[in-house]
Amino acid sequence: MADSRLTSPPILHRPTEGRPEPRMELPELNIQADAGLPPTADEVVVFQATGVNVHYGKFLALKDVDLAIHRNEITALIGPSGCGKSTFLRCLNRMNDLIPGAEVGGTITFHGEDMYAPDVDPVDLRRRIGMVFQKPNPFPKSIRENLSFGMKVNGIRVDDDRIEQVLRHAALWDEVKDKLDQDAYALSGGQQQRLCIARAIAVNPEVILMDEPCSALDPISTLAIEDLMRTLREEYTIVIVTHNMQQAARVSDRTAFFTVQQLDGGDRHGILAEYNATERVFRAPEDPRTQDYITGRFG
């Protein structure tokens, strides 16, 4: 059977100075010998960002970002605080549209179509590009209702088989199968975050964006989420913002290092310094700023 994802449907439109001395050695990273890009990666570009600038009012937050994100890969966005990682992530499903004064320049395409064209429907775009936030944010409803709400809104049939399928996909079914009608807030933090991932995939997206999804979780829950991401990569394209370099090394196929550029007048803005296969970024970075960051010399 042909892979239906090879031909993606179009976006739905509306009708009409010197470096300081090192403080630590390169961390021991859990990268396998054959790590990097999956041998079967088909190199299909899902997102293409070209010359992307983001302003918040008069403040330039992100400047001249060129980046291609590929299908069925996990792309990690790393860098110091304030470098624009989350800002760029929000560009990928037009969440910046909801921030007063935010303005995105340049071009971002999704399967070759300009995401910011005037006639693109951002609501449909966000259905196809799901989002998981830093802190678990389940609805104050039952587990079942957390999943069924989005499905109903998007015209997807809701039944017990579908609920089970989604929860199994999020590696949560065995833990909650007898609690579907209980309050989602009764779950642990890690379970709540997996429920939020299940809620995101329940509406059949193509892409899952994750903004530091493990920052509020304990190590065991973090590993569970990482295992889940590896599994989901087989069917989804995943972009994750993380401050945890070990995590980026463990789970991602490609890594984008963002940093802050300081101007003579005191202004500063985020830039993309390096983007490559994760193994290359961590083992043999091309930009000295990347080496400085991953060895703890700054950031």
How far apart are the termini? 48 Å
Query: Count of helices?
Result: 10
Relative strand content? 15-25%
Overall morphology = globular
Given helix and strand content, the structural type is: alpha/beta
What is the CATH C-level name?
Answer: Alpha Beta
Physical arrangement of strands within the biggest beta sheet? 6-7-8-3-9-10
Instruction: Domain count, please report it.
Output: 1
Low-confidence segments, given as residue ranges, are: 1-7, 15-27, 30-41
Q: Give me the CATH fold name.
A: Rossmann fold
Helix percentage range: 25-40%
* SSE arrangement, N to C: EEEHEEHEHHHHEHEHEEHH
Rg of Cα set = 20 Å
Strand tally is 10
For this entry, what is the oligomeric state of its chains?
A: single chain
What this model shows, in words?
The chain has 299 residues and is an alpha/beta fold. The chain has a single domain, classed as P-loop containing nucleotide triphosphate hydrolases (Rossmann fold), CATH 3.40.50.300. Helices cover 29% and strands 24% of the residues. Strands 6-7-8-3-9-10 form a 6-stranded mixed sheet, with helices on both faces. Strands 2-1-4-5 form a 4-stranded antiparallel sheet, covered by helices on one side. Strand 1 and strand 2 form a beta hairpin. It is globular and about 60 Å long.
